[in-house]
Structure to design on (788 residues):
């Protein structure tokens, strides 16, 4: 018997999940309170679409700003700390130790300081994304082949030229990985923060409707978040695949970051 | 920079940060209501460590962390090994893994609450759920990190599957396994915290959340320091163990 | 292959050395006084010659080459290229080829070859013209739009050579350029290199570990001692040009190789 192709199996799994989502609740196998049917969820999403759309906008706004912090600062800091040996030896171990602390415990501090509005989410998600992006960029910067710099110097490149014509192009794959990571993490951070203490946003809708036991609306919000994070991931990968030329960049030592569980686990977070 | 120079520099940095934490609120440069001076926070911490309700909360949190870990690790590891070892299963699920990782798993908290209510089981279930994925991913990476040429050599000498498992896989994966456990514990801790802060009546996360809501900043920061210290100590301890086991790793 | 202005200068003063190294020493700074790397090296390379430097590992041959290229500065002594010193790398006077081709993976073959020209702001059309010419010179026509990861090791080194030659420097320095290639490719590349050299009449200083390669390629072989590196022998290879593979089997070839080997053995 020929096994069906993996892609087919994946699609089948998706179909089965959707089917179960629809039929398990409607046939009463699980109470609607625990799992409202897919059709009910979608109906409610459609009815309240203005509310959900407005909430999504708030969330996206918070995600965008926290990405600026997490990716902007994270990539910059990672490039500097990773590139300058003295800083690297001094600071990197400190940062990777700090990574062990669940950043979420700082969120009440941010709500106390900034209130329950967007600011606290942005501050929190910004920091949440900052550390992993910084660590990932610092590691990635080190995979740049130093031979490139030697070759460019031998061709008479000045320092500004070394930076713009060699270092920046060579570090683009790392930067893109940092952007993808940062985006995923800030989405997670914002959603968690909105679920915990908030007055707006899609995460807030989850909590709000849960407390009034309106399961269909809870799941509608969950669905919206699912779509958001998957859409982001697909967008990031599409952009990255344009850079496929550099996937086979030489001198990527096998022992470096990509195969370690730490690097692999980084986006999993909450 | 020599080793001593680095250590001195780090200590200096630490002193600078701690010093700022003390001086800035005291001098009024930062509102001491928002950021209490370090000495006040530490005093509060000492006080809290003596309180029975804090002891209780710590016990609850610790129990959740441990139980969730015990559940998550075997499940995640089994799934991860399956994905790594079985090419067919691997091809099906590996592309999905990346999507799964991008999803904020906290959105499933309401489901756990709906099913389990607010209590020990819900938090453990949620934390185990999130941790299992991390373990899965790390386990896959760990299994795939075993070099195929090592396996080939062992096979060419007639080693049985069990022997290859015990004499090649395990030693090869040992440092990676430790790292896996360390990283998984970080996420496990995070998961428990999120669950406790979201909807719980017990646990340190709940206390912290409460203190935050009531603007009890000294207590809040004391709790943060306590948790951070525990997390970092655990992390460094496992890291030291990892270093011991991985002297042969490049 | 067009002859450019600087070539005529070289030929004008036929007696002026292409490379003149005078009493060069180098000490690496260290915690305890420093490590002497090169000791009192003097050599004179006539224009248009193919000079090969051999020596045991760590003898400083690469350091010497770096200094000739202006990438590193010696602690004592002078290096002159056609009568002028080389304080900073100048690809119009000295082209450098490393063991690793180090082609930039984000650029096509042609873009890689033009890279030095683009650093100097040469107009686009001229850049294209020159890089195409170099591409033909190294027999890689048609591969201009490929990316480095699509090329074999030997092809990458050819692109690296083309890049070194694109500004038509009179001198070419090569640091074990074929060491990372398999033996067969090495032999082909050596043959190619001699063809390119005889067409362009550059002065070449070539470092290698392979004694066969040294005798096959060189007009002159300089043997260096173990650290601190000194020049302990200068062997003139009088085999006729163009060199052929069959020469490798001759007695003369074998004796030359043996002489080099004995020198190296004595010094280690």
């Amino acid at each position: 018997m020929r096994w069906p192709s993996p892609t087919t199996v994946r699609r089948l799994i998706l179909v089965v999940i959707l089917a179960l989502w629809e039929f398990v609740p409607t046939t009463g196998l699980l109470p609607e309170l625990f799992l409202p049917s897919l059709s009910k969820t979608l109906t409610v999403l459609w009815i309240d679409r203005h509310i959900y759309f407005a909430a999504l906008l708030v969330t996206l706004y918070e995600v965008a700003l926290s990405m600026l912090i997490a990716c902007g600062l994270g990539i910059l800091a990672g490039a500097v700390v990773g590139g300058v040996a003295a800083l690297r030896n001094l600071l990197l171990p400190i940062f990777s130790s700090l990574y062990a602390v669940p950043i979420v415990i700082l969120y009440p501090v941010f709500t106390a300081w900034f209130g329950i509005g967007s600011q606290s989410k942005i501050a929190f998600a910004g920091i949440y994304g900052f550390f992993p992006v910084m660590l990932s960029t610092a590691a990635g910067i080190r995979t740049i082949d130093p031979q490139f710099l030697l070759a460019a110097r031998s061709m008479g490149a000045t320092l500004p030229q070394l930076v713009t014509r060699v270092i920046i192009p060579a570090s683009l794959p790392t930067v893109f990985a940092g952007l993808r990571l940062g985006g995923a993490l800030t989405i997670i951070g914002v959603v968690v923060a909105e679920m915990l203490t908030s007055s707006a946003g899609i995460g807030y809708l989850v909590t709000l409707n849960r407390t009034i036991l309106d399961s269909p609306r809870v799941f509608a919000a969950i669905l919206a978040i699912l779509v958001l994070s998957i859409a982001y991931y697909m967008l990031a990968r599409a952009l990255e695949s344009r850079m496929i030329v550099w996937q086979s960049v030489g001198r990527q030592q096998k022992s470096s970051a990509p195969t370690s569980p730490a690097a692999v686990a980084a986006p999993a977070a909450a | 920079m020599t080793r001593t120079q680095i250590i001195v520099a780090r200590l200096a940095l630490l002193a600078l940060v701690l010093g700022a934490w003390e001086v800035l609120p005291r001098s009024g440069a930062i509102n001491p209501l928002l950021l209490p001076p370090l000495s006040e926070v530490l005093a509060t911490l000492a006080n809290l460590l003596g309180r029975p309700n804090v002891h209780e909360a710590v016990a609850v949190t610790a129990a959740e962390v441990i139980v969730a870990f015990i559940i998550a690790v075997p499940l995640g590891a089994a799934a991860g090994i399956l994905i790594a070892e079985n090419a067919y299963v691997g091809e099906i699920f590996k592309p999905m893994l990346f999507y799964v990782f991008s999803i904020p798993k906290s959105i499933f908290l309401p489901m756990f609450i709906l099913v389990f209510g607010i209590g020990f089981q819900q938090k453990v279930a949620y934390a185990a759920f999130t941790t299992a994925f991390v373990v899965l991913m790390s386990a896959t990476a760990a299994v795939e990190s075993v070099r195929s040429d090592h396996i080939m050599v062992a096979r060419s000498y007639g080693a049985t599957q069990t022997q290859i498992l015990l004499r090649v896989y395990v030693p090869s994966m040992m440092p990676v396994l430790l790292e896996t456990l360390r990283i998984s514990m970080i996420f496990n801790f995070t998961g428990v915290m999120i669950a406790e802060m979201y909807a719980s009546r017990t646990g340190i996360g709940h206390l912290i959340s409460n203190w935050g809501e009531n603007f009890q900043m000294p207590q809040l920061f004391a709790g943060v320091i306590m948790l951070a210290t525990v997390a970092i100590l655990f992390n460094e301890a496992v890291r030291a163990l990892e270093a011991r086991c991985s002297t042969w790793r490049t | 292959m067009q002859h450019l202005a600087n070539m005529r200068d070289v030929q004008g003063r036929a007696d002026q050395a292409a490379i003149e190294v005078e009493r060069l020493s180098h000490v690496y700074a260290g915690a305890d006084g420093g490590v002497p790397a090169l000791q009192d090296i003097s050599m004179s390379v006539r224009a248009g010659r193919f000079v090969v430097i051999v020596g045991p590992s760590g003898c400083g041959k690469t350091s010497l080459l770096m200094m000739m290229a202006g990438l590193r500065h010696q602690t004592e002594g002078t290096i002159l290229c056609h009568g002028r010193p080389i304080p900073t790398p100048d690809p119009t006077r000295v082209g450098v080829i490393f063991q690793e081709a180090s082609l930039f993976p984000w650029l096509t073959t042609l873009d890689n070859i033009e890279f030095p020209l683009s650093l100097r702001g040469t107009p686009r059309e001229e850049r294209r013209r020159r890089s195409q010419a170099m591409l033909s010179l190294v027999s890689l026509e048609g591969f201009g739009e490929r990316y480095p990861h699509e090329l074999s090791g030997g092809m990458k080194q050819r692109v690296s050579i083309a890049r070194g030659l694109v500004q038509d420097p009179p001198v070419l320095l090569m640091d074990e350029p074929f060491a990372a290639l398999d033996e067969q490719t090495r032999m082909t590349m050596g043959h190619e290199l001699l063809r390119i050299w005889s067409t362009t009449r550059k002065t070449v200083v070539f470092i290698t570990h392979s004694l066969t390669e040294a005798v096959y390629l060189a007009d002159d072989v300089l043997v260096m001692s173990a650290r601190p590196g000194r020049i302990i022998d200068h062997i003139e290879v009088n085999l006729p040009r163009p060199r052929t593979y069959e020469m490798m089997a001759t007695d003369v070839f074998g004796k030359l190789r043996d002489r080099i080997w004995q020198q190296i053995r004595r010094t280690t």
